[in-house]
């Protein structure tokens, strides 16, 4: 049986690791106060985690925030960078095929089937996708011209609804001003060891066109990330150096019109497109990561094009004692990718001689995913009140998502003949047009409407009670078709499901004094269920596996699953505001988990609500102004998410009690230090960011899909450094990312146990660059 280290022992080890660092920061801050250093306090951050503007120190929840200035000084360019510097937020990119598939989770609430467990927002608009097929993947906005990024840890079912089961990641954009002009620009050039150069340029600006009546903000941005993984075909040696380059561009225009002082109307259009030329996954058999050699052996490139446009209209009307807010949006996304199936087809048919292809063979998989989401939210919320703050809202969405996979391989018939002595005519098969062997499409439509509300009642001057709830109704339609030799014949599926869900929240916060607040909350999170294609039952063995599960056929629907989260925490300003502490501990119960059940005899799987899990851990953020010129930050997240019971289906064990729910690191930490100084009469700084992620959990050899050649996710350490100087409104900085040139494998993959092919990804090799920013 698999050995599981006790949570108490792990927490003890964590405490031993953190105590010297946190105590050192505390001691240095205290020493400065004792010596009479000036009262240099840490700047307060304003967030909208509770759907209204308030200081982060007053929010009774675990929220990590990155401002635009902080992202610039830390060199944050993407969601991967956000996750690397936010303990508790786990992000991974798969190394096989095109690499478009990603997983994002908060506090271990992670799943690869059904609707998302982490909500992704641009302003007030959710953009996460449902997992329909092997190619379904979220899209994330790039980080140029963002006012801030908020990571809300823990279920946010009351205010942010479906799929905020583990939490939410919100990308907040700047809005037009009716009174002030502003300009922001950023340019960069960088050079990667063994790779091509990277560069970017972008500009954003806003101004009142008519004072107090009409304002505009617009931005345009382009970035080129140079490739660093070579493609050398395993078949003939052809290929391309530094093949995995990427072009990304974004633009936004927003206009605010205030025909009367109480009313503001803001239409906006946000556009983004990324073009990845080839995968960043490399073949371990051809590569030497420690030596800076990264090679992908695919026969053809695997490009990914991802494009979306978000159009929205926001309306705000201020009554004397309350505000009406309306957001109407339309999100239109198109994801296209190519996957190389050349070696995979051969290996699938002949595992004893895998990746031995026929001369001239090229097998291509064409994938497309489309999203068209209409959302409407209306909120009525109180203005600042000492006794009662409240928000009431209605939400409606119509989300349509489609996915298509089309595989082409003119040599498939020859492969069948070579390996098995079979031919298409004898099996009654024939190619689809253009050499197609598989063509399937998925269409999903989810309609949702919800009523929600939350109120904060001041029981005393210091004690506040929070009560909230959301009631939602879902209708899901699922349509799927398939044809071609690979699909086992033509089929069509048309299914529907409906359900309702209520997610409450209660909390209590105590403001001990102006600098210390303590809170406790209990909240429910959920994600909607759905419909699915029923598995074809054509053999006695398959019927027997279903019978063992108490089924005659696989379900055409699956229900929502839910979590209950219990959290206790504190937010403290110490030593006259020179030190900020944000600490919490949580316990999450996950019930009726949406789980993929695999059936060997049927050769397929289905989603069912089975299994329970518990996620428990801590979050700690410690920021200290050690001296008037030295600031240090320590952030830590520890998550222990395990199954409470064994799960089996179709004659195989899927998970055993105590197994990890996700394969990411349990322990994540970042340690940052920034030393400000004066050089040539100008303000300057030196900053170092250290990110640590602990080793993932061992795989259980008793469960289905166990592969002894896939070790747990390794421990990783990454160091970035930046040296900058201000010149009036300009900041010039020199940076080194991945100072130690770490090449840890981040996502090792194995198609099947007999295959000798292993793919992996790593950090971008050491990159040296120069950045200029301008703010006015």
From TrEMBL:
Residues 306-739 form the TonB-dependent receptor-like beta-barrel domain. Its main location: membrane. It is found in: Cell outer membrane. Pfam families: Plug, TonB_dep_Rec_b-barrel. Residues 57-168 form the TonB-dependent receptor plug domain. Residues 1-31 form the signal peptide. SUPFAM superfamilies: Porins. Keywords: Cell outer membrane, Ion transport, Iron, Iron transport, Membrane, Receptor, Signal, TonB box, Transmembrane, Transmembrane beta strand, Transport. It is a multi-pass membrane protein. The keyword Transmembrane helix does not apply. Belongs to the TonB-dependent receptor family. This is TonB-dependent receptor.
